[in-house]
Amino acid sequence: MNWKKQGIIFNANNNNDWMCTHASVPIAEHIKEDEFRIYFSPRDLQNRSFTGYVEIDIKNPKKITKISNKPVISPGDLGGFDDRGTIASSIVTYNDKKYLYYIGWNKGVTIPYSNAIGLATSNTNEEKFEKYSQGPIIGRDVIDPFFTASSDVIIENDLWRMWYLSCTKWEIREGKPSPNYNIKYAESKDGIDWDRKKITCIDFKNDEEWAISRPCVIHNNDGYRMWYSYRGVKNYRIGYAESKDGINWDRKDDQAGIDVSEEGWDSEMIEYPFVFEHKGESYMLYCGNDYGKTGFGYAILEQ
Q: What is the number of other CB atoms lying within 10 angstroms of the CB of residue 251?
């Protein structure tokens, strides 16, 4: 693969009191014809994460046609799993209902933060999402004892399949607590109650790698393909893997076809890929330096 970078699409710049900085973890939803809505996570001046969106014409993505004036999901109640942030990571439509899976996070005491996976739903003709519950749908348990986070969900023959981030442990790095996390797998019959399979899909390559996040899975006639972020000694890079069944994966990071630029907004790190297809073209949304502080851009796969 060879992804040709097209430049930055959007970054928050004090657009309003909840969209001050960052544009992290972009995901695309097809609206109609060539119109797409891109959900992403900005931050306010208290560093809390929200989920908003911009709308674009995919023929000219750099021209923003609409920016949400209100967040579609906001931080939860005091003491809740998402009282410091709600970061959308996957969206699917089923029976005229949209399911938006998000990362909820709050502050810790012995560790800096804790994450879990929440769910918000909406009718297909509405912009506002309602949280399914005050608690997470996938949080800490005996399989995932530390935290869960970014996920991707697809539906195949009424079987809901999820690939999600699972923290395996915390370690002290450079004098501070730092998490290790990889990608695991779960299934569901309704998108709400999930059966975690105790299966690690994408694991660490070596002892120097300790973070694998933000899976994005596509299934077609060639099998399953996954893009994700990974890091260790270096900052985030985009990785790539292939599978015949969506469970057993072969990492092929050297075939990802995209890396940091020599200079500019994505010269230090590149992460949070979201790949989608439209009218025979393959597009990738991704973030650049400092976990989305410089915004998100896009690339097109060269044929």
A: 18
